[in-house]
Amino acid sequence: MDERGMKMFHGEDKGTSKRRSELEEYEDRYYQELKGHYIRIKVSDSHYRCPYCRSARDYLFEDLLKHASRISKNLKGTSTKEIAKHLALERYIRKYFSRKVNAENSSNRRLSSAKDDQQLTLSSAKDDQQLTLSSAKNDQQFVWPWMGVIANIKTEVKDGRYVGESGTKIRQELEKKGFNPVRVQALWNYRGHSGLAVVEFNKDWVGFCNAIAFEKSYAIERRGKRDFYVSRDRGDKLFGWLAHDDDYYSRGILGDHLRKKGHLRTLSDKEAEEQRQRSMLVADLQKTLEIKSSRLMEMESEYEKTKHSLDNLVTQKDEMLRAHNEEIRKMQQIVRDHLAKIYLEHDKVTQHLQAQKYELQQQEEELESREFQNEGKRAKLRHDKEMVEMACLEQQKANNNFLRLAEDQKREKEKLHRKIIELERELDDKQSLELDIERLRGALQVMKHMEDDDDVDLKQNMEEIEESLEAKEELRKVLTVKHLTTNVELQDARKELIKTFQNNTSRAQIWVKRMGELDSKPFLVAAKRKYAAKEANVMAVTLCSEWEKLLRDPGWYPFKGITEGENRKVYFTPN
User: Fold this and answer.
1) 8 Å CB contact between 150 and 197
2) What is the pTM (predicted TM-score) of this model?
3) Hey, what domains does the chain have and what are their CATH numbers?
4) Per-residue pLDDT at 548
């Protein structure tokens, strides 16, 4: 603490000595933080900010100095830490910023602000360099990993052995001060706790800075290495310093521990080793980058090949599907034209039979009206009528057969259509399977190029893809054989259907087709010849009903044909 800070406590009783000691300790700590540039106070060329106040208010240089002085003088209602923070801030400003601000007032504001920033940067860099290299001049050797020594740890005798504070408690105290030790290990010998402890820091430059700060903090409080060996009355205060070569080669438990846990190294050795490691890392990264780039180019080439192959397969699939659809359309058109031709011929035959029937009815009516006496003509007319009736029955049977044949052909067409749909689906499955096979082959080739001896997951994926590829290849072969078999069956069925349609036109030889109910007049004429006039009407109706019932039975055949020589005669077979 400076003289002004000491005067603030002048005249107070001895009860404030403890607070004064804490104030000095806190002030030195916060001053070292400001000096090490861990905390920034300058926010622009001409504005500053108090880092210890919550309000983010900007000050000019004089206003910030007045603010720090006012808070540090306010002893009532202010904590010891707040006073120490603002005392350290005032001390730091007066030492490092006062001359810069005076030069700023005598020149242009913008130019001088730039010079101030440059001087502040140079001063900060100089302070950091002095802080880091002050202990490393003349290639001074340190124990690496960076280690510090804590001495004068309070011990007491218990059960015939010396015991003292554990390393964990000391490490927690050092962490509170911001030194960030890795571990603190107390040194023990055959008599117990030796009163010494070794503080280990990180191996990097941050750990070295923490070790230097650790040593400086004890040196500022006059509890460094030199003070430990010179002082006669050490009291209960702890002493600490950074382990150097003299500690490393010293005799006793401390030297043994340092030689066991570390070795000597200069800062230039450390820098050279890091430079060598960085060079090796850069070389390895460049080599890895070249390998990855080469693999990437190979993968891109394989990708282009696979993509081109898949595009060709898709094009072939579209062409095959288009040709297949065109063939199906042509077949359907042929079937429709053939059915239309059959229906047209059937209508012509039906009209011809109706005309003949009408002509015969006219002749019958004419014969009845004239009451032919010629039995020969009547017999001939009866025979012609019977022939016409037989032709009508035969036409009705032919119609039933035609309808049944049409139904069979319809079912056959539906069956063929379902077969065609199934073949199309199998063709799509086959083509989709071929695409999957090509895709898996491409993925397998890509993974082969990406194969690495240490990549177990990649090898496992390649094995799974190869198994899947073999399974799909077997399935493709089975589908191909099945497709060929069903295609042969489909072609045979198509030929058979076309042949059936062609043969169906031979049925267009029937002349008469009777429509609707039976005509009761022929039954009445026949009944009058056999029965009396009173019974003739009843018997005619009865016979007509029986014939209608028999005609509805598809298994009943009223005629049978007998061939005698070259002439074929048809006789009625009564039931």
Assistant:
1) yes
2) 0.30
3) 3-133 (no CATH), 142-265 (3.30.70.2890), 293-514 (no CATH), 516-575 (no CATH)
4) 81
